[in-house]
Structures are given as structure tokens and as C-alpha cells.
Amino acid sequence: MNCRGKILTLDGRTHVMAILNVTPDSFSDGGQYLDVQQALNHAKLMVAEGATLVDIGGESSRPGASPVSITEELDRVLPVIRAVAEALDVVISIDTSKAEVAEKALAAGAHIVNDITALRGDPEMGSIVAETGAGVILMHIKGTPRTMQHAPQYEDVVRDVCTSLRESVQYAEAQGINAEKIIVDPGIGFGKTTEHNIELLKRLSEFRSLNKPLLIGTSRKSFIGNILGLPVTERVEGTVATVCWAIAHGADIVRVHDVKANVRAALMTDALCR
Ligand code: 7PJ
Q1: Staple 196 to which of 10, 157, 242, 260, CB 3.0 to 4.6 Å?
Q2: For residue 144, how far is the Cα from the chain centroid?
């Protein structure tokens, strides 16, 4: 996959995407990396640990989170993107649903737009991605971060999410986005109960029918906490279990906080099932 000149090879090994939140209120690491130098140091560490992508986000999408203004989001992410792009040979994704933030982030050195609304949050997003030649991650969400956990319901969660992603892919391609620059993601935890998340993972291989690279984000999420009865600081092992399972059932990219443990687990799982 060629994302604005940066090549992401999606056939050999699983890629680990490291989460770099530059928000004061993210649910597990909010407030830690607001300072640019600190954010850069954390990115360097995660790349040294084996991450091949870094996902930079300036707006928390945790359940109930308040939206932030475009200026605030830009002030948070642009200096960090510039610093990471300058210092590291890594694929950078910008976690945003706002076209203006995406456009400026791409100009600052990002390669991929990670849009949790799958281009539905901003009417300009599709054309920005198409014009810039960026890669795009189309994630499924039911509702908005504010409303998504209010008793979400599906007829068949896997079929419903798959159908929605298929429509998102069609919309993206109709907007002029190159078919080979699209990654899909069922959006674990975004408008889903613990049972829905488990069902999505159990039947993950059904998403292969979309014929797109598949990204999965389970890291430290509350369904792991619910099953293990553990707080967010104690969910590494639960996350690693889901990462190994996801790789064995078709994931190409895993989005995580705890890079070292998940890179080792991914390499081992690759050796077993690729
Ligand atoms: C995801 C994401 C995910 C993609 C978040 C968290 C909540 N982007 N952004 N997939 N999750 N593509 O980090 O737990 O699962 S924010």
C-alpha cells in the first residue's frame, strides 16, 4: 500500500500500530504526552519496540467524551506529527474525523487518515483523502462517541457491521479514493456491548470477504476489563490474547498501547499461522 510515497507492505507480517494520544482526557493514557518532546520520546520508544505505524490523535473518542474545536485539535497534533515525521521512519496516521485536521496533518507529514466515522463525519473528508493520495482506515461506529454505548442493538452484529463497512468502501471509492489505499476496521467497542465485541472477534474471518486489509483495535478496552474484572492498567495480557486471536483470524494491523508485548506476541503468532 502506497500512502503518499510511504510504502506499507501488507502480506508478510502483522503490522503493529502504536497509539500516541495527545489528549488530556483519553481513557487510559490521557494527559501523558501533551508535551511535544515527551510525545516524540514515546513514539521513538514504541518504534524501537517494533511498531511500524504510529496513530496520532488529538480528540478523545472514549464513550461520552466531549468534542474539541478544530483549532484545539490542530494545536495538539500538528507539532507532534512534524516532530515524528522528521525523526522517525514510520508510517503516521492521523486519528481524526475532521477534514481540515486531516488535510493539515497530511501536509505536516502524516500518511494515513484514521477516521472512526468512515468518512461520514465530515462531507469534505473523502475528497481530501482522494486528492492527497493518503491511505484511509474506515472504521465502523454505531452512533457517535457521545451516544454509542446507549444500549446498542444489532440484528446480527457481524453481518450488520460487514454490510456497513461494504457501503463505506463503496462510498470511499465513489469519492475517488484508490481501492488499494483502503483499510477496514469493525470498530471494537464503538457502539458494541461486551457480547457484540466477542462475537465480532469470534467471527472475525468473515470480514475477509471485504477483500481489504483488516485493522483491529482491542487494546485495553472495557470488554477486556469486563471479562477479566480488571482496571485499564491491568489489561495487557487480555489485550495480547485478543491480538493473537485476531492475527490468526485475518487481522493485518493491530492498534495497541503496549507495543513491546504485542509485537512479540504478533511475531510469534505470525510464525505459527502465516
Ligand atoms: C480505535 C480507533 C479502533 C481505529 C480508537 C481506544 C479508543 N481507531 N481509535 N480502531 N479505537 N481505527 O483507543 O481505545 O479500534 S480510540
Answers
A1: 157
A2: 16
Q: What is the pTM of this model?
A: 0.95
User: Ligand 1 centre from 187 Cα, in Å?
Assistant: 7
Biggest CA–CA distance in the chain, Å, is 47
The alpha carbon of 172 and the centre of ligand 1 are apart by a number of angstroms equal to 20
Cα-flanking dihedrals φ and ψ of residue 12, to 5°? -75, -75
Measured by CA distance, the residue closest to atom 14 of ligand 1 is 221
Tens of pLDDT, residue by residue over 58-114, are: 988 777 777 789 999 999 999 999 999 999 999 999 999 999 999 999 999 999 999
Distance, in Å, from the CA atom of 244 to the CA atom of 254, rounded to the nearest integer, reads: 10
> How far is 100 from 77, CA to CA, in rounded Å?
12
| Closest C-alpha to 237, from 246, 247, 225 | 225
Mutate to test the pocket of ligand 1, among 97, 115, 184, 255 (most ligand atoms within 8 A of CB): 255
Contact 77, 94 (CB under 8 A): yes
Strands 6-7 and 2-3: antiparallel
Residue 97's nearest CA partner among 135, 148, 61, 130 is: 61
Burial of 208 (0-12, 13-18, 19+ CB in 10 A): exposed
Distance CA 68, CA 46 (A): 27
- CA–CA dist 220, 53 (Å, integer): 18
Q: DSSP letters of 106-149?
A: HHHT--EEEETTTT-S-TTHHHHHHHHT-EEEEE--SS-TTTTT
DSSP 26-40: -TTTTTSS-SHHHHH
**Element (DSSP H or E) covering residue 201:** helix 194-202
